[in-house]
Amino acid sequence: MARGDLILTVLAPQLTADIQSQLDALVVQFGLQEKSTQRLAESSLPDGKHVDCIEQRLVGDDIDIEEVRHAALVLSETLGVDIVIQDDVRDQVRHRLICFDMDSTLIKAEVIDELARRHGVGDEVAEVTERAMRGELDFKASFRERMSKLAGLDESVLAEIADELPLMDGVERLMANLKRLGYRTAILSGGFTYFAYYLQDKLGFDEVHANELVIENGKVTGDVREPIVDAERKAELLEAIALREGFTLAQTIAVGDGANDLKMLAKAGMGIAFRAKPMVRAQARQAISTAGLDGVLYLLGHCQQDLTP
Description:
GO terms for molecular function: L-phosphoserine phosphatase activity; magnesium ion binding. This protein has 309 residues and is an alpha/beta fold. The protein has 2 domains: 1-92, Alpha-Beta Plaits, CATH 3.30.70.260; 93-110 and 166-309, Rossmann fold (3-Layer(aba) Sandwich). Helix content is 39%, strand content 27%. Strands 7-6-5-10-11-12 form a 6-stranded parallel sheet, sandwiched between helices. The mean pLDDT is 93.
């Protein structure tokens, strides 16, 4: 424990007096002093939702940041808002690279489950997917098991599903602003390149790394090309992209929801669990559970007036 600077960011549909009172109590509980408070957002968004966001820069002695983060997470869940704690290194580090998981992060679906449903094996594959995302199964083993059940699926189904992919709340606004602000963006997914490339074309990601389905004679074979993008591979890719682009790991951000994202979240300078499984929320350093994906912009310190709608 040591003297340190923290940033506390709060995202809520409305910042009420009760929420502010409990935030003040959290700050007092850990002996923190307020250096500054800034309102980053107070407006209606294009999807019709309202968002309030404040950012407090705090300082204190003998800070155990993990204790502060845990208390903030508990309070977040109690109040139904997002309270995010991070080290205040903004004056020393400029984030440059942001890497995203795809399924249940950029889109409101697990594509392998959708493929399985169309192939008549939806329930058995979805059960394995859910257990894998909770960290109860080895990802590679469970992935191969699920893939084997897709053998014989017609290739035309891929295009049908791609056309119907439900985008995550806030992803279009997030990507428009990240591109405008000069961030490099990547999809690092245990899902499939077919759908990741579709999102790249639609939203403008700089690069894509995912699993490539093996298709023969217009049918899915049940195999994918090696190497499989699993938890270790995601973390390796994040580091490799940063090195190639001349960024430090401190300049990287990772966003994901499942157990197979944890190593990527830990490797990045900022690791954000987005609408994640409880185990992932508990282990990640930052978590967004109630706001849309564009809430990431506020964790980076961007103000509403500096962002496009």
